[in-house]
Amino acid sequence: MTAWTDSVSGQTIVVTGANSGIGYAATKAFVARGADVVLACRSIERGEAAVNQLRTDVSDGSATVLELDLADLDSIRAFVQAFETAHDELDVLCNNAGVMAIPRSETADGFETQFGVNHLGHFALTGLLLETLLETEGETRIVTQSSAVHEQGRIDFEDLHHEDSYNRWTAYSQSKLANLLFAYELQRRLDRADIEDLVSVACHPGYAATNLQKRGPEQSGSALRLWLMKAANALIAQSPEQGALPMLYAATETDVRGAYVGPDGVRNMRGHPEPQRSSDRSYDEATAERLWSVSEELTGVTYGFDGS
């Protein structure tokens, strides 16, 4: 990919989960090419440490941190208010943060945590930032990070928060399928509203070595699972910098409206970014519309354009 290298200079970009892993790698690439990046992080301390590291590593753009806990709708609203106080424009929103295969828990608002953080939190954040995205001059983008694991996902509307039965991977795959259903439905609604300057794109990193894989084993106290994850990261995974390439591509390349971008290597686990096809279930418009309605009801966030 070459076209993106200078295209972000002077842009304002928000990256959720930007203090480590793929989020940090993408943030560093954006800042190095002159962007003004807001690191949206649950931990201000870790966010500030990341900003300090960025100031050591790169100097072209700028980076600031704002607190954002995607497991708390009040925190999301507070983040949006703080962002809009400091910034008049938003060129790219990267919905990157997530949790993976953790023991069952609930968000501050009573949602199953993986569904609440990975999907509902980003659904609410995007809706609340929509006006700023629409009012920013030129083309703006919403990039939503999914996962190849979405292919095993199903949206269980009868037990959306897995209260009756919980499997950590079933819950994770549901949340990643929800990311895609949301990204595609958002683009359809933008198209129906004749909004051309705001683009929704989905992506996945393949298999990249990050802290994401460790959290589930650590929280469940499984030393064996933690060892296996570390071994797989060392032997199979690509670097966070490589894992960030699909998100960078989705955020900057031309002709990616409504696309799904991932690595082009074996089983799409590593390699260079390219537009790909996701699972058949991810293109189910009836499921997407129902999920959208449920997400509005659960979060209390509606989108300010006539794209229904």
TrEMBL record:
It comes from the Archaea. Keywords: Oxidoreductase. Residues 262-285 are annotated as: Disordered. Residues 271-285 have a biased composition (Basic and acidic residues). InterPro entries: NAD(P)-bd_dom_sf, SDR_fam. Gene3D superfamilies: NAD(P)-binding Rossmann-like Domain. One of its GO terms (molecular function) is oxidoreductase activity. CDD domains: retinol-DH_like_SDR_c_like (cd05327). PANTHER family: PHOSPHATIDYLINOSITOL-GLYCAN BIOSYNTHESIS CLASS F PROTEIN, PHOSPHATIDYLINOSITOL-GLYCAN BIOSYNTHESIS CLASS F PROTEIN-RELATED. This is Oxidoreductase. It comes from Halocatena salina. The lineage of its organism: Archaea, Methanobacteriati, Methanobacteriota, Stenosarchaea group, Halobacteria.
